[in-house]
Amino acid sequence: MRIERKKQIKQTLCGCDDCSNGDKYFQNLQQIGKDLKFDQELISLSIFLNALGNMERLTILTALKDKELCVCELEAILDKSQPSISHHLRELEKVGLIRGWKKGKYTYYMLLKKELAKYLSNLNQQFSFK
């Protein structure tokens, strides 16, 4: 951050919060930002939310909620090509929300409900109000 911008922020901070030492208050806020940036729980939630931030992936998770499905079934549900669906499945697998396995010449996928529940619980805990 540029020095001039820091000065502006420090001046504004003491206007919006009754502070006696703008430098110290600014340093405290900067430390909070650094701590949050490297918080593993937040990093994990960010990866999870990025995986969910796509309509096709949300549709896949919803379709897998009640039943294991093969890729060709997901093609019919999503009306998308196999390569497109495979991309989304890889993204969901990377996060650990689904698992795939071969059954003959087909690949089936299932929703890992405990993992999804864990992420949702962590998200709820992170943003619960005290």
What do these coordinates show?
With 130 residues, this protein is mainly alpha-helical. The protein folds into two domains: 3-38, no CATH class; 41-123, Arc Repressor Mutant, subunit A, CATH 1.10.10. Helices cover 68% and strands 11% of the residues. The protein has seven helices and three strands, in the order ααααβααββα. Strands 1-3-2 form a three-stranded antiparallel β-sheet. A hairpin with a 2-residue loop joins β2 and β3. α1 crosses α2 (22-37) and α3 (40-52) crosses α7 (113-126). The mean pLDDT is 90.
| Shape, per Cα inertia axes | elongated
Under the CATH scheme, the architecture of the largest domain is: Orthogonal Bundle
Give the oligomeric state: single chain
**Count the strands?**
3
Distance between the termini: 33 Å
Per the CATH scheme, the topology name of the largest domain is: Arc Repressor Mutant, subunit A
Which class best fits the helix and strand makeup? mainly alpha
In terms of per-residue confidence, which ranges show pLDDT below 50 for 5 or more consecutive residues? none
Radius of gyration: 22 Å
**Alpha plus pi helix count:** 7
Strand content: 5-15%
Q: What is the string of SSEs from the N terminus onward?
A: HHHHEHHEEH
Summed up:
The protein is mainly alpha-helical. The protein has seven helices and three strands; from the N terminus they run ααααβααββα. Helix content is 68%, strand content 11%.
